[in-house]
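Q: Hand in one record:
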Amino acid sequence: MAQTDTDLLDLGRVQVHKKFTQHISIKGGDLEKFPAANLSEALNVWLYGTFSNKNTLVYVIDGNITTDVNVYSVYDIEEVTFIQNAMVQLNGVVQNAQMAYIKTRRNQPGKSGVTVAAQTNMVERRLLYPEDKQAEETNNDKTSDLSLFHRYYISAYKNTNRSKFGISAAYLKDVFPEPESEKMEVVKQPTLGRLNFNGYANAEIGKSSNLDIYLNYAPQRIKEEQSWNSNDADVVQNTKHKTGIINTGIKFKNKFSTAISNTLNFEYGNYNQDDYDGSRSVFSNSAYNYYSTSDKSLRQTANNFLLRDNFVYNKSFSGWTIEPSLNFSFRYRNWHKKDSLAQLSYSNGANTGYSYSWSAYKAYTRVYLLTSSINFHYKGLFNIQGGLVVNLSESVGTDIERRFPFISSSVDVVRLIDRNSKTGLRLFGSYAQTGSFADDLNLAANLDDDFHASDIYIPLVFDGSMLFPNDPDEKYKNIQAGADLTLFDRVTLSYSYNQREFSSAVLQYLYSPSYPSSPSFRYVPARGEMKLHAIRLGGDILSNNKFKWNTSASITTVFNTVDNSEDFGIGYLFINNTYVGINQIQGKRVWSGGWANRVSLNSFTAEVDLLTKFRGTISNGDYSSGIYNSVMLQNLSVGYRIPSSRLQGLEVYLNSRNLIGNNKQNITDGRRYFGFGFKAAFTR
């Protein structure tokens, strides 16, 4: 349904009231100046620091849990709400993942309007430890040449008394410049190009019905080319990665009476990927004039169909409200994959070898879920919500868990006594059991790559492996508790605790007495537990007609353990882009946080964001690893709003990303951005 009630969040299978749920809200306008191809890179300073990244964030977009958030431009986002409640595990959030609710821009002001924006940045990349140390020893470059990042956006909308229409288009180009070495020449820097096309239409039908239609299309291409000399061979490697997402849906809401409503939703999503990786090697100094080629291709497609119906009853009496609901969802997904590898070699003009191999794979899932929920609440001060998710899907050859209960409650203990108090203390508690509902983190999660290809940038992995999904015949518990202390209706001090069970995998090395220097390995399923503590201070420190300062400062610690029921021997988990021994993380804490600031003085604006991580693990370039601490000036920008009688919004700004930071860290990928941009809005 079109999001008209700003307090009600449709998480996909259950609806929650924002005021009864511990959360962090970020305005879309506070993210627009940050140059990034992936939304998670702009969000992490507001949330759990480096623990919030593209591998851990699951997005619900206007109630839909099937699409990748990057089908939308950041300019299409009105607000991001980070949900801190155990019930998120009922809606596609498994293992160590987190949920962010995205509200897109639908309720635009006036009768019509046009928005345009543009941004360009110079980008350089500096090698981080230990690569920078290795480059220094070999007299190779530690810093790349400058490359160009830019993006453009335009949107238009039309509002009438009974309907709303809007379209938008965006183009983004990101780069990953490579420092050149003595033997390697970067012919074409790794480049990402993405287009976004989005449209929506919302119309009232009669007096009690509402129809909402939306369409997203986002093609993306990544390509690079390198050449180098190795062992008297001149090698040229060319890589192309092409992906595309199409997502469309229709929602029909019918209000039968003041107390009864029903929302029917159908959505279709398609993800396709086409990869090519080719290399050419010429041994020019060889007496045999040796020449070889290798061509590798990969094609895969995923289709997703979702049918969802949500029935809600709402009745109020004497300050109390009762809201029972029943949600049914059916999801069908299929996946097709085909890859091939062709290798050819010549010597003195003669064919000396040729090989060709290919494979194909198909898979599909059908999932039927029924979620019943009932919510009692009193004057916005107290609530208790509980229910049951029933998995009605067919099982293949094994029994699966069917019933998963959940319960959540909150109470404002101060305002329950004094309704007019400017100080509030709201306590939160929630519990949920979950299993495997065959959900994806996004449409492409089960493919080899996601929408923002790892060829460009592999963000930090949450501390714990996510290689295996939750087992369908197991239950996993999630307990979450917290408190929000609000002072003077302006600043909130929050504490959040999350304890969660999940399935994982351990990379176990198996040494053979016959081949001690060449061990084999296997992935061993394991059960893990995460304990997370987060403290945050956020709100408007000062706000008047001339000066405003909004801040969000947080620190999060994670404590992971892995089941020791099996002797893993030499076992590793994949953490922070490197394999780390279990004995190095078992029972040890890691800390990360961020500090985001938005300041305005008359027409001037400024943004200052810091990203931190403490007691992190980093590889030393050999088989050892060490502990490190890092602080990064992730975002710095200054802007000026130009007064105009014809424009409702016109701002120009200078911006930067990762401008200052210590070298021994891996909380970023080493890229630094600096440039400028503008945004203008016309409304009538």
In short: Residues 131-137 form the longest helix (7 residues). DSSP finds three helices and 31 strands in the chain. The chain has a mean pLDDT of 83. Residues 58 and 592 are 19 Å apart (CA to CA).
